[in-house]
Every structure is written in structure tokens, then in C-alpha cells.
């Protein structure tokens, strides 16, 4: 367990970042939490943490200010979202490379010992994801390189930037490729939401409004695997504490179609089966994606524990309690 360390978490106002702050604080570390978002848009804020709101880490001076005396850095920050965002904001997503690069330079300047980079399954070669229900993606499947346009290239490039800072300057780097992480205290509307949260919101709203239809992007046959946030945090910290320096999948291998996920959410909500309106012109991403967990089991002796139904129950309950309280807390951040 990591404790008694001074840790910088960049992207701390975001979904995974917020859960990471909570866990590392509980484990007895002192935390500097930074995000570009203004305070009212942070998903979670904790006392006894040095919080830096509205701080743009694409700016190297901001990076230098907060890396001075830290032991570890977790870079959880990037301008991203579900397919609805990354397909329509490729230049915005690519600029996240400035965060990672300037953060690494500051870490080198101040002799930070260890650095975590949150990469993504979007780094994988698209040609291996053209069918539904594919074989799990193995870490070596990122090359030959043909990642998701924009966002995927930024993640793959930043992985390589991390590796070269490790080779040339000796910063210990750990890299996780996340596979569609979901759970409470994440984005559920406003345009950046991913499928689990989006569909939980749509079912919850259908129930509240006594509607009998639900809109699904694509034909619903496309497949994914989804990782519950608690497993994501545990896997991240296991990887960080390990001595394995190459990218590792942190994901689930429970591959489902979007239609199957909607079936699960309908049962959780108690609503009768909704008529499905398939919007074929909406952003769909790859046809099929899931994680091969052989390497993560081998190097970390760890695998996720939360099955999709259990994770969706917790996520649906949280979103159902949130919807109607207020609109999206990120709408200001989506491209108008
Ligand atoms: N966002 C969203 N909203 N997706 C929907 C919806 C909806 O209402 N209805 C169906 N889908 C379908 C999308 O068309 C896509 O085929 C699938 O669900 C998953 O969409 P997603 O969760 O937005 O994003 P992806 O898994 O395709 O890609 C995401 O992968 C993550 C890593 O696994 C990326 O957007 C990043 O968030 C991240 O890299």
C-alpha cells in the first residue's frame, strides 16, 4: 500500500482522478490535487488536500509549481469523453499531449521518483476491432499503430514519451491502458459521457417520464467491456507499486453488446422493455473491443472483481439520484 508519500494527482477534479484522491488520502498520503475545471465542476473535493482549481497543466509553469517536492505523480488529466466527444474534438484531445510532456519535463527537473500515465484502449489498432465479440486485445496489439484518430494517437504518443523519459532520465513510469471505466461520480450527460452512464441516464429518464422508447447509438450489436471504478483504482495502484515498466491493460474481459447492457439496465431499473430507436449516424467507434487480461494477471497477480450487473446497479442508483437534481456538471466543457 502506498502511504506517507507526497503525491500530485493531475485531473483530480475528474472521474477516475477523484476516486484516486479519495483512496490515496485514506491510505495516509498527502495529496496535491489539480484540475483545469473550476471548483463547482469537480466531481469530488476533499478537505486536508491542497486543491488547485482552474489550473491549466498544458502550461509548464503550472506544472513546475506543483511538482516541486512531490514523491509521485499521477497524470489522470486529458481533454476527453465518450465517443460523442472524442470523435468531434480531435484537435482538443491531441493537445493533452502538452499536459503529459510538460509534466514529465517538470518531473525530470525536480527529480520526481515515479510517474503514472493513464492511457486507453483507444491506443489499440482499429483493424483488430472491426467485428463484434473479438478476442481480447493483448498489449502488443497496439503495434503496428493505427489507434483511434485524435485521442488514441495522443495516448499512444504519450506512452512513448513516458518510456523515453524513463530510458533517458531514469523516471520510473507505469502505464495503464484503461478499458471504458464507469461508476458513480462520473460524467453522465452534457456530451462527454460514455455508454454505461449515458444509457443509465436514458433509462432513468424514461422511467421518470413514463416514456416507452430509448435512443441507442449504432445498431446496439457493437461490443465493449466495461471496468468498474473500484477495480480501476485497485488495478492502478497495484500497477504503480509493481516494477513492471510497460503498458498494461486495466480492464474487464466481460464483453457485452450495447443491447445486452441495455437489457441489464432495464432490469435494474424495473422498467418494462423499452422500444429501441437505433441512431445509425451517431458516433460508434470500433465494432468490438475487450481486454485480454493474461499479462495483468501475470505481472500483478490481480484481476477485476466487479461484474457488469453489480457495477451497473451502483452506477444506475447514483445517476438516478443525480438526474433531476441538476443538469450536467460538465456542459460548459463540451464543445458548443
Ligand atoms: N457515449 C454513448 N452514448 N455511446 C453510446 C450511446 C450513448 O447514448 N448509445 C450507444 N453507444 C455506443 C457508442 O456508439 C459506442 O459504439 C459504444 O456505445 C461505446 O461508446 P463510448 O462508451 O462512448 O466509447 P468507446 O468505448 O467507443 O470509446 C471510449 O473508450 C474509452 C477506453 O475504453 C473512448 O471514448 C474513451 O472514453 C476511452 O478511450
Features:
single chain, 336 residues, two-stranded parallel ribbon, binds guanosine 5'-diphosphate-beta-L-gulose, Rossmann fold, seven-stranded parallel β-sheet, globular
Explain what this protein looks like in three dimensions.
- With 336 residues, the protein is of the alpha/beta class.
- The protein has a domain at 6-182 and 227-252 and 291-306: NAD(P)-binding Rossmann-like Domain (Rossmann fold, 3-Layer(aba) Sandwich), CATH 3.40.50.720.
- 37% of the residues lie in helices and 15% in strands.
- It has helices at 15-26, 60-67, 83-86, 90-94, 96-110, 151-169, 195-208, 229-241, 258-269, 294-300, 308-322; strands at residues 6-10, 30-34, 50-52, 72-75, 114-120, 172-178, 181-182, 213-217, 223-224, 227-228, 248-250, 256-257, 275-279.
- It has a 7-stranded parallel sheet with strand order 3-2-1-4-5-6-11, with helices on both faces. Strands 7-10 form a two-stranded parallel ribbon. It has a two-stranded parallel ribbon with strand order 8-13.
- Helix 5 runs parallel beside helix 6.
- The protein is globular, with a radius of gyration of 19 Å.
- It starts with 5 loop residues before the first strand and ends in a 14-residue tail after the last helix.
- 48% of the residues are buried.
Helix and strand layout, with pairings?
Layout: E1 6-10, H1 15-26, E2 30-34, E3 50-52, H2 60-67, E4 72-75, H3 83-86, H4 90-94, H5 96-110, E5 114-120, H6 151-169, E6 172-178, E7 181-182, H7 195-208, E8 213-217, E9 223-224, E10 227-228, H8 229-241, E11 248-250, E12 256-257, H9 258-269, E13 275-279, H10 294-300, H11 308-322
Parallel strand pairs: 1-2, 1-4, 2-3, 4-5, 5-6, 6-11, 7-10, 8-13
Antiparallel strand pairs: 9-12
The protein binds guanosine 5'-diphosphate-beta-L-gulose.
